[in-house]
Specification:
single chain; mainly beta; 8-stranded antiparallel β-barrel; 1 helix; about 10% helix; disordered N terminus
Length: about 170
């Protein structure tokens, strides 16, 4: 079972890396980011995140509010998140140009062999997110971190658990 889930996560990560990027324009309203991540407690994870501009003018201002929706499927479980963030744009075309910073409410369910947790546990909590996106090739890297509170599962260990993950992916604008 562990190997089958690992294979699915690996196949999704390879598909993300092989996808050709779409041109990202600041006049667009939606950013979609398939990515691969590694962290606690889900282990290797395939994710899909979306940032939707809350500014009627689209993603064309220096800094603007955005709705963040995110989900991931990993060898140690799954997670769903929704939250609020800000996208900030730089003028440099050399390396990094866009940052997305936000907070998300999260629900996470473990299965298989999660890292730093037990299988069949359910957690809720808050995560902070930071993404840095290259203006040159729409590739981004990021980190998520926060605290999760166990609401269902065995009671022989602590209820509070840290969450941390690093990821990389492509960003597509619509």
């Amino acid at each position: 079972m562990f190997r089958a889930r690992w294979s699915v996560a690996t196949a999704l990560a390879v598909a993300v890396a092989a996808a050709s990027p779409a041109a990202v324009s600041r006049a667009e309203r939606i950013l979609v980011a398939p990515s691969a991540s590694l962290g606690l407690p889900l282990g290797p994870t395939a994710s899909l995140a979306t940032a939707i501009s809350l500014d009627r003018g689209g993603l064309d201002n220096r800094s603007e509010p955005a709705l963040i929706l995110d989900g991931g499927l990993g060898v140690g479980g799954w997670r769903l998140s929704a939250g609020y963030g800000h996208a900030a744009y730089g003028d440099s075309e050399i390396l990094w140009g866009t940052e997305l910073v936000g907070v998300r409410a999260t629900i996470l369910k473990t299965w298989g062999r999660p890292f730093n947790a037990r299988a069949r546990e359910t957690y809720v909590g808050a995560l902070a997110v930071l993404r840095i996106i290259s203006n040159h090739d729409e590739v981004g890297v990021g980190v998520d971190f926060g605290a999760l509170y166990r609401i269902d599962g065995p009671t022989d260990h602590g209820r509070l658990m840290p969450y941390v993950a690093i990821d990389a992916g492509r960003f597509f604008a619509f």
